[in-house]
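Hi support team,

I've been running sequence recovery on a batch of backbones for a student project. Most finish fine, but this one hangs at about 90% for roughly twenty minutes before it completes. I'm not sure whether the input is malformed or the queue is just slow. I've pasted the structure tokens below so you can try to reproduce it. Let me know if you need the job ID as well.

Thanks,
M.K.
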């Protein structure tokens, strides 16, 4: 009887197991139900549209044509991309006005809010509008893109120079290693060719040829429209019909897109650009990128988790073993419909054998022994946090992210999930990702590793050792891994024994509170319910490099990396990474010329931990000499390579020509860093973080002041800050003689032209928030002038750039103009830059330019009302430098005070007769 019962039990258990597996398989095979918040429609002519209404969000628009370089004939290479350019160069409703300038006057910024792109199988045009007011204008332009481009011969000829400029920029002689990888992955797919075309095909483009491609592929059934944001759905659908229903339908076959065929050659040697890192990259194909079922979404989450675990382990071990790695990455991506997992490590060429061995051995250890409890807990913390606040986080997703998700789904087998289904999959994922399952998945992924090997070398001659390096790494991966000692619990920070004193507390306005602490720190709370469960802090000090003894300037370049690797609060960096991850907190130090601080992102429930971390970082930083030695070694090697690279040679020569006396702006040679001591770095830390420098702590989140007060006493008011007895100012003398440099150091056939205009700041009047707004507006105006003149009128460069650097404190401001050129256009380009500067200096800023820049700035600052990270950063800056903090809350009144007179005063101050220039022409190396 007992035997029968045991047999029956066994059968019952087996049956339950089979039923469980069957149910499990059924769940994984469950098809995703499309998100009902998306509304879809098709006009009678075949054009499709997709709408997603989202309150209080900008309106994102994408007009998509399902044709790109793959639809070009052999004689049309580059035509799809050239045609995309021509959408901005004259159309039915924009024949007499520049599209860029038109939308800029509405407050949009070229590039950020208005742009277009071409790829292998699609071309798309995108607009970001602050609201729905100008949607009908956007549709008018999109309709012009559809069938109203004029393609005038003179416009085509004028744009040819800009397209060639983009070719020079995107396809340099020295391609970065990831661009080389992309090219190799396409090697066995004959339908692929360079999206930009060839130099010869670009030069041979004609209006008739463009029109032939245009009329063949731009037809209603081959296009789609995506609109996401705050709009009325009924109104939008009516506007879509009004603008596009009359577009004539064509009975033409749709594009036949050939899928990517991955190359049979799995080993490829690459050559890193001069001065760049060598690298070992393992790229593992994971199959077609798709998210059609619950199982697909589950696997997508799992791959992301495994990559984060691999990267964290490799980074921790790199520091622990003082491995000479420059960077470590583990991530997955989608490449032309294929999902790829990438493991990469960078290094200086002299450390190749050591780093490749380290990489392989650590992957073998992960494969054979997996991760520990603490590692998994840290990696899962963000998933659990997202699950806890899932509905809130889903609601907080902005219109840009939602738009990009739909865009991806149009070209991948992917169904966009509803919030409920996404949460259901995430719940199951978090519940099932225990240590056993994760380590089994890691083992499977790393055991099945049959990757593409991409190995980047410092020079072409070394590529012959590819087979040898691949064999070495493969053999090391095949060996058994080593077991590591694993931590069992997540470390915690101790609580300070003594509490501090709060001197005063006051309410500044309806959403802002201020505290004055006994140690001199001023604290501000900005209530921001819109950021939901997120919280942000900024610890800001009016110190920066200017408050250091000049002898410590080189040490300041190494300080943050050394202190990070040294750990604090009795914990090494690996333990600190885990405790921060487990508490959903990210802390990032920053250092500029005249201020420094810490930016902290956390969550509502984790604010006590974040404040505790702030306390320990500001009180317990200690330099580990072993870590300093390693940081110095890597820094010296990196700087030495930089000094021999073309870019490094140019910057060094310009710096030597500019600085006559003083060390504040000096680019230090690599040999300088060998002499830095632990005491030097400790002094940097003490000077920047343990002395009084008008310190402010700004907090943003959905908090009440009574939530904050006890935390301030426990963690902030008791931070000991020594009195700053001496406010230092940098001593520097710059060369006031204008100079012309010709530097034949480039590895490219093109020429780069650099004009640096330096301006001594002579006014003694303190800057105000209005001045800050004016400087931003002036920068926008100068860039728009440069675009109109250097690209538009003269067609010299694809992306002429003007950078204006006007520091909050300091003695000098700088205006930098840079262009990449065809060598034959060098003289013309110099004349054009002179014309640009002369026009601004002599003609001044117009009212129309002022109004355009004012609208752009207002649109750019509008999202700050919901962006806690930007709010605390700006408030910290404004408080330190004496600008009105009200300008962060409501910038419009301050923008309104910027007049053309003020802008023209700033032109005289920053670009006037007192300016002196360095012109540097970077030429190809002499052959």
């Amino acid at each position: 009887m007992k035997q029968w019962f045991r047999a029956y039990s066994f059968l019952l258990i087996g049956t339950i197991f089979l039923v469980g597996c069957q149910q499990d398989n059924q769940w994984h095979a469950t098809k995703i139900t499309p998100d009902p918040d998306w509304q879809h429609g098709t006009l009678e002519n075949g054009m499709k549209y997709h709408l997603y209404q989202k309150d209080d969000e900008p309106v994102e628009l994408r007009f998509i044509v399902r044709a790109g370089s793959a639809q070009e004939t052999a004689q049309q290479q580059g035509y799809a991309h050239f045609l995309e350019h021509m959408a901005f160069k004259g159309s039915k409703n924009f024949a007499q006005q520049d599209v860029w300038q038109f939308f800029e006057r509405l407050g949009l910024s070229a590039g950020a809010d208005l742009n277009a792109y071409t790829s292998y199988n699609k071309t798309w045009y995108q607009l970001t509008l602050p609201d729905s007011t100008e949607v009908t204008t956007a549709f008018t332009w999109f309709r012009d893109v559809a069938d109203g481009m004029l393609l005038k011969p003179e416009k085509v000829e004028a744009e040819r120079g800009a397209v060639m400029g983009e070719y020079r920029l995107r396809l340099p002689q020295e391609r970065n290693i990831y661009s080389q990888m992309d090219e190799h992955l396409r090697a066995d797919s004959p339908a692929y060719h360079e999206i930009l075309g060839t130099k010869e095909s670009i030069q041979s483009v004609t209006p008739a040829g463009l029109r032939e491609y245009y009329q063949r592929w731009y037809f209603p059934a081959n296009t789609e429209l995506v609109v996401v944001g705050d709009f009325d759905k009924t109104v939008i659908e009516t506007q879509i019909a009004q603008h596009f229903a009359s577009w004539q339908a064509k009975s033409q076959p749709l594009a036949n897109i050939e899928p990517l065929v991955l190359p049979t050659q799995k080993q490829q040697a690459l050559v890193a650009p001069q001065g760049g890192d060598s690298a070992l990259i393992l790229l593992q194909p994971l199959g077609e990128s798709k998210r059609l079922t619950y199982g697909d979404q589950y696997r997508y989450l799992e791959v992301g988790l495994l990559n984060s675990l691999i990267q964290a382990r490799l980074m921790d071990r790199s520091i622990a073993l003082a491995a000479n790695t420059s960077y470590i990455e583990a991530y997955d991506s989608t490449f032309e419909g294929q999902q790829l997992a990438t493991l990469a490590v960078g290094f200086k060429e002299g450390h190749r054998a050591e780093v490749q061995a380290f990489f392989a051995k650590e992957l073998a250890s992960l494969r054979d022994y997996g991760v520990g409890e603490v590692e998994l807990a840290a990696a899962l913390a963000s998933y659990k946090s997202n699950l806890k606040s899932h509905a809130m986080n889903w609601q907080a997703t902005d219109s840009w992210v939602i738009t990009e998700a739909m865009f991806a789904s149009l070209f991948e087998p992917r169904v966009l999930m509803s919030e409920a289904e996404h949460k259901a999959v995430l719940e199951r994922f978090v519940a099932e990702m225990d240590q056993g399952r994760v380590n089994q998945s890691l083992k499977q992924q790393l055991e099945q590793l049959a990757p593409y090997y991409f190995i980047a070398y410092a020079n072409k001659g070394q590529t012959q050792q590819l087979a040898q390096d691949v064999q070495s790494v493969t053999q090391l991966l095949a060996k058994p891994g080593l077991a590591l000692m694993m931590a069992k619990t997540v470390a915690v920070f101790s609580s300070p024994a003594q509490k501090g004193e709060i001197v005063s507390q006051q309410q500044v306005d309806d959403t802002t509170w201020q505290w004055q602490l006994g140690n001199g720190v001023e604290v501000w709370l900005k209530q921001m319910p819109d950021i939901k469960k997120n919280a942000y802090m900024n610890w800001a000090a009016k110190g920066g490099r200017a408050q250091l003894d000049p002898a410590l300037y080189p040490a300041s370049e190494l300080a943050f990396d050394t202190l990070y690797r040294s750990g604090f609060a009795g914990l090494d960096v690996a333990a600190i990474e885990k405790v921060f991850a487990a508490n959903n907190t990210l802390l990032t130090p920053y250092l500029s010329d005249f201020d420094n601080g810490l930016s902290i992102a956390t969550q509502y429930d984790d604010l006590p931990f974040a404040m505790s971390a702030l306390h320990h970082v500001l009180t317990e930083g200690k330099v580990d000499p072993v870590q300093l030695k390693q940081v110095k070694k890597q820094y010296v090697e990196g700087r030495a390579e930089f000094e021999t690279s073309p870019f490094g040679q140019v910057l060094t020569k310009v710096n030597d020509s500019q600085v006559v006396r003083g060390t504040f702006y000096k680019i230090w040679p690599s040999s300088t860093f060998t002499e830095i001591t632990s005491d030097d770095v400790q002094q940097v830390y003490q000077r920047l973080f343990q002395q009084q420098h008008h310190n402010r702590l700004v907090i943003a989140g959905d908090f009440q002041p009574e939530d904050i007060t006890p935390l301030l006493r426990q963690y902030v008011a008791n931070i000991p800050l020594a009195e700053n007895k001496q406010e230092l100012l940098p001593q520097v003398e710059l060369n006031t003689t204008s100079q012309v440099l010709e530097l034949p150091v480039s590895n490219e056939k093109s020429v780069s032209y650099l004009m640096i205009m330096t301006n001594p700041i002579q006014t003694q009047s303190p800057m105000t928030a209005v001045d800050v707004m004016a400087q931003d507006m002036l920068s926008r105006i100068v860039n728009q002038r440069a675009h109109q003149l250097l690209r538009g009128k003269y067609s010299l460069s694809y992306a002429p750039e003007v950078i204006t650097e006007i520091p909050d404190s300091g003695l000098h401001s700088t205006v930098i103009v840079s262009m990449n050129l065809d060598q034959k256009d060098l003289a013309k380009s110099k004349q054009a830059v002179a014309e640009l500067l002369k026009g601004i200096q002599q003609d001044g800023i117009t009212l129309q330019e002022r109004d355009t820049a004012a609208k752009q700035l207002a649109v750019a600052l509008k999202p700050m009302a919901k962006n806690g990270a930007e709010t605390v950063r700006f408030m910290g800056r404004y408080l330190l430098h004496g600008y009105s903090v009200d300008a962060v809350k409501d910038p419009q009144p301050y923008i309104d005070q910027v007049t053309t007179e003020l802008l023209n005063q700033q032109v005289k101050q920053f670009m006037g007769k007192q300016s002196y220039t360095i012109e540097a022409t970077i030429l190809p190396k002499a052959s």
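--
Follow-up from support: It reproduced on our side and the slowdown came from queue contention, not your input. Residues 38-244 form a domain with the Cytochrome Bc1 Complex; Chain A, domain 1 fold (CATH 3.30.830.10). No action needed from you.
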